[in-house]
Amino acid sequence: MSLPFLRVEGLMKRYPGHSGKLVQPVFEGLSFDIERGRFVCIIGHSGCGKTTILNVLAGLEVPTAGHVFMAGRELGGPSLDRGVVFQSHALMPWLTVRGNVSFAVRSRHPDWSRPRVDAHVEHYVAMVGLSSALDLKPAQLSGGMRQRVGIARAFAIEPKMLLLDEPFGALDALTRGTIQDELRAIVRATAQTVFMITHDVDEAILLADEVLLMSNGPCARIAEIVDITLPADRKRESMHHDPQYYRIRNHLVDFLVRRSKELSTPGAAQFVPAGWRPPRVQPGLDPNPSNPPALNPSFALDPAGSHSNSNPESV
């Protein structure tokens, strides 16, 4: 059996408190896998540690406990193997679009000639529809265009994994929709592995192959993984006509409104067996998805020591 592309084992993050007092961890007991080429979104209320998880995956933060492995190697610090797109565009204002993307490409390929760098940059800038803006500086671009440059820069270094921290949160609805469509097309064309934070349920359904649902913090954990069973070629303007869409959406909204709080018992992760992974559910394929998975705040164990949700697809 081959190892998953990304494996997270027993991740926990605790920030130091005042006067040396112990504080509850932001999240604990996180274990999950991501297969190569999958688009994964993570959803949860503010304070559950989504951005901290992304920063750990990016190598920007060190976990208090646990390990992260990518392609069979444990991660240790930032690397060009992982491209990051933050909530703000984070462009260098004194450089043009070409200069911002070229800077990243030269960092990745210092031995490339200038013509080769230029051709590479122009290819990825064209993919986000900004060929006409190559020689403009960030101050001359709209907010949506700046975010496109950030996406082009991340893709241009051809990372093994792309990490997105709510990259469209500050954009208006029309611009957001356009860039979502562009991102989906690029990811499908490049078979890129993506881990993305979002608060937008519809955005997750449109973009993701699977959605990680986090309980409320502190001591947050991933309660379940939802497979997005809509067709891979789904489109924003038509996906709501598919009956699966409403089953999936209702499941996600119900979790955020009700179950995320019910599952937020501090210290519950201590009841999770080593190597436990959240149940995988498929509400889009269930004709009667009114009953949530058999998962309770204490992760109750049966006498054999396995978790109580032995049939996670029976949502």
Architecture overview:
It is a single chain. With about 325 residues, the chain is an alpha/beta fold. The protein has two domains: about 180 residues, P-loop containing nucleotide triphosphate hydrolases (Rossmann fold), CATH 3.40.50; about 70 residues, no CATH class. Helices cover about 30% and strands about 20% of the residues. It is built from seven helices and eleven strands. Helix 3 crosses helix 4. The longest helix is centred in the C-terminal third of the chain and has 20 residues. The C terminus is likely disordered.
Question: Tags for this entry?
Answer:
7-stranded mixed β-sheet; disordered C terminus; 315 residues; alpha/beta
Short characterization:
With 315 residues, the chain is of the alpha/beta class. It has helices at residues 50-58, 97-108, 114-127, 143-156, 173-190, 201-207, 243-262; strands at residues 6-13, 27-34, 39-43, 65-70, 73-74, 82-85, 161-165, 193-197, 210-214, 222-227, 280-281. The longest helix has 20 residues, at 243-262.
Major sheet: size, sense and barrel closure? 7 strands, mixed
**CATH third-level topology of the largest domain:** Rossmann fold
DSSP helix fraction? 25-40%
Mean pLDDT: 84
Euclidean distance between termini CA atoms: 27 Å
Please tally the β strands and state the result.
11
Q: How many domain modules?
A: 2
- Based on secondary structure, the structural category is alpha/beta
Topology pattern, helix = H, strand = E: EEEHEEEHHHEHEHEEHE
User: What is the CATH architecture annotation of the largest domain?
Assistant: 3-Layer(aba) Sandwich
